[in-house]
C-alpha cells in the first residue's frame, strides 16, 4: 500500500504503488514494491520526447520547449504559446493530430463556453505543445508530417531508441496514448533511471532548464509536478496514474 484515504478516523480506501529511486549510473538507492512490473510511461515521457524533438532540429525557444514537455491546461496563455510554435515555420493548428478536446482546466472550459465555443479543438488538447514540437522536428529533418504519429515514423523510432537506451529497458511494443502518439512501456526501475539521468546528464540541460524556469506551464499552479519545481531545485513530470521527480543536482549520502 502506497497511500490511504482516511475519513473520520477510518481508512476509507487504499492505493497500491511502487517506489524506485536510482542514481544516474543505474544503481538503486531505494525501492518498494514490484519495481519491474510493466506499465505505460504516459505523459511522464514528455521531457524525453521534447528532448528528441529539439535534438532533431525543432529549434524551440525555452518557453516553447517547456510547452513541448508540458501537459498544459488549455488556458489562453497556453494556446497563445503553442500556436506560434507552428505558425513560425508555416505550419498551422490544422497540422496537429491531437484529438479535438476541451481544456483540462475547468476555468478555461467555462471561459470558452461563456464566449460561445461549442466544439472541442485540437489545440486545446493538453498534448498540443508536444505535438507542435514533433511537427517542428519533422519539418527540420524533412520527414513527413502527415504520419508523424505512426510508430514507424523516423521521429517516433528515434524516441523509442533514445528512451530505451536511456532507461536501459526496451519500451516496445508501444501502445497508443490518449493523444494518439505512441505510448512507451516502462517499469518503475527504468523510469527512475530515466529521471535520474534527466537530472544529471549535460545533454538534458536545455530541457531541464526550460521545465524548471516555467513550472506552471508543465502542469498548473497547485499540481504536483509544478509544485515540486517551485519548492526545490528539481523538475518533475506527471503522467496519467502517477508522476516522477528528477533532481537537478543529484547528491546522495
Summarize the model shown.
This protein is of the alpha+beta class. The protein contains ten helices and ten strands.
Mean pLDDT: 91
Q: Output the structural class.
A: alpha+beta
Described by the principal axes of the CA atoms, the overall outline is globular
With strands numbered from the N-terminus, the spatial order across the biggest sheet is: 1-2
**Could you describe the largest sheet, including whether it forms a barrel?**
2 strands, antiparallel
Number of discrete domains: 1
The CA-CA distance between the termini, in Å, is 27 Å
Number of strands: 10
> Helix-strand pattern, N to C?
EEEEEHHHHHHEEEHHHHEE
Quaternary state reads single chain
Task: Report the uncertain regions.
Answer: 247-253
H/I helix tally: 10
The radius of gyration computed from the alpha-carbon positions, rounded to a whole number of angstroms, is: 18 Å
Helix amount, in percent?
A: 25-40%
Strand content: 15-25%
Keywords:
253 residues, alpha+beta, two-stranded antiparallel ribbon, 40% helix, 16% strand, disordered C terminus
Present the secondary structure layout:
Elements: E1 3-7, E2 10-15, E3 19-22, E4 28-32, E5 39-40, H1 46-55, H2 62-68, H3 76-87, H4 106-114, H5 128-141, H6 154-167, E6 175-176, E7 182-183, E8 185-186, H7 188-200, H8 205-213, H9 215-218, H10 224-231, E9 234-239, E10 242-247
Antiparallel strand pairs: 1-2, 3-4, 5-8, 6-7, 9-10
Helix pairs in contact: 1-5, 1-6, 1-8, 2-5, 2-8, 3-5
Structure report:
The longest helix has 14 residues. β6 and β7 form a beta hairpin. α1 packs parallel to α5, α1 crosses α8 and α3 runs parallel beside α5. The strands form five sheets. The protein has a two-stranded antiparallel sheet. It has one domain. The two termini are 27 Å apart. The C terminus is likely disordered. Helices cover 40% and strands 16% of the residues. The protein has ten helices and ten strands. With 253 residues, the chain is an alpha+beta fold.
Amino acid at each position: 500500500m502506497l497511500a490511504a484515504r482516511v475519513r473520520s478516523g477510518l481508512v476509507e480506501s487504499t492505493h497500491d504503488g511502487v517506489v524506485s529511486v536510482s542514481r544516474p549510473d543505474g544503481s538503486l538507492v531505494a525501492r518498494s514494491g514490484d519495481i519491474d512490473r510493466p506499465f505505460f510511461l504516459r505523459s511522464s515521457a514528455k521531457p524525453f520526447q521534447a528532448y528528441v524533438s529539439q535534438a532533431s532540429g525543432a529549434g524551440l525557444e525555452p518557453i516553447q520547449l517547456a510547452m513541448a514537455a508540458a501537459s498544459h491546461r488549455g488556458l489562453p496563455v497556453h494556446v497563445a504559446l503553442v500556436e506560434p510554435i507552428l505558425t513560425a515555420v508555416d505550419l498551422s493548428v490544422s497540422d496537429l493530430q491531437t484529438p479535438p478536446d476541451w481544456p483540462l482546466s475547468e476555468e478555461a472550459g467555462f471561459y470558452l463556453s461563456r464566449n460561445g465555443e461549442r466544439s472541442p479543438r485540437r489545440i486545446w488538447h493538453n498534448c498540443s505543445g508536444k505535438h507542435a514540437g514533433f511537427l517542428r522536428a519533422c519539418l527540420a529533418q524533412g520527414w513527413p508530417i502527415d504520419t508523424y504519429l505512426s510508430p514507424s515514423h523516423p521521429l517516433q523510432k528515434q524516441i523509442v531508441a533514445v528512451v530505451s537506451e536511456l532507461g536501459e529497458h526496451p519500451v516496445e511494443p508501444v501502445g497508443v496514448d490518449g493523444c494518439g502518439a505512441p505510448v512507451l512501456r516502462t517499469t518503475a526501475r527504468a523510469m527512475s533511471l530515466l529521471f535520474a539521468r534527466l537530472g544529471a546528464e549535460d545533454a538534458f540541460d536545455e530541457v531541464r532548464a526550460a521545465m524548471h524556469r516555467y513550472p506552471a506551464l508543465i502542469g498548473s499552479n497547485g499540481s504536483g509536478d509544478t509544485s515540486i519545481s517551485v519548492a526545490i531545485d528539481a523538475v518533475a513530470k506527471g503522467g496519467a496514474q502517477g508522476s516522477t521527480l528528477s533532481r537537478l543536482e543529484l547528491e546522495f549520502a
